[in-house]
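Quick note —
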Amino acid sequence: MLEHDIYAAIDGEETIAGKEYTNEEIVEIKMNRIEFDGIVFSKCRFVNCDFSGSSFLNVTFSNCDLSNCRFQDCYFRDTKLNECKGDGSNFSQSSLHRVIFESGSFHYSNFTSILSDNCCMYHVDFCDSAFQEMKIKKIIFHTVNLSRCDFFKTKLKGVDLSTCTLEGITVSDTFKELQGAKINPIQAMDIVQLLGMKIV
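Predicted structure written out below.
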């Protein structure tokens, strides 16, 4: 059913709206510039799919596999990704407005140059992911694994990282990305190591 609706959208309808899909599998389909509006994806698996340039409005991904999918230059609004696996996914240059990532895994994912406006990340494992050159209007990281993530040229001023794992993160030589960020005393020890200092 989902595959049929996708091809119909590709052939000219362009919008898929007001539907629910469960236990669907889509393999290596290009879904560029499709608008998904009011959609619920539950336990769906997308294998190496390309959503580049598409829009997601009031969409829920619940317990879906989005690993290695491409979401470059997409627009997300009022969208939730709950208990999803998105390892290796690419969200670079996308706009995220009121988007929630909750209880999922997005190892080695790419969020370079995204615009984040009122986004929330809860209990998500983002280890080894790229958050470079992000534009942040408002973002919440709560109990998130950011180990070995790259925040080069992303200003984290005012962002509360105190509940997150920050071990091995990458920033610039000046550490300006971390200026004004909120961290806890234990995290401060990791940051001191970034400076090349030793605690005695």
